[in-house]
Amino acid sequence: MLKVLKSKTIVFSIALAILSVLQGYIGLLPLDQKGQAIAGIVIAVVVTILRAITTQPLSDK
Predict the structure, then answer these.
(1) Which residue range(s) make up the domain with 46?
(2) Does residue 61 form part of some domain?
(3) pLDDT bucket at 20, cuts 50 / 70 / 90
(4) Least packed by Cβ within 10 Å: which of 2, 4, 31, 41?
(5) In a domain, 37, yes or no
(6) What is the pLDDT of residue 50?
(7) d(CA 44, CA 50)
(8) Number of folded domains that form the chain
(9) How far is the CA of 36 from the CAs of 8, 31, 32, 40, 45, in angstroms?
């Protein structure tokens, strides 16, 4: 399990899941539709960058 946490992509995904739950329950970020669209774009770009810099599979970490 700790090997998996060495992955930046996995850590980002976990953080994103936690923020999504917080947003759903307490409205942490008051975003309108435009803000939500920008947040979605930022998330997609970060995931793409993390995937591009990935050099080894999780099993090798």
Answers:
(1) 4-56
(2) no
(3) confident
(4) 2
(5) yes
(6) 92
(7) 10
(8) 1
(9) 23, 6, 6, 6, 14
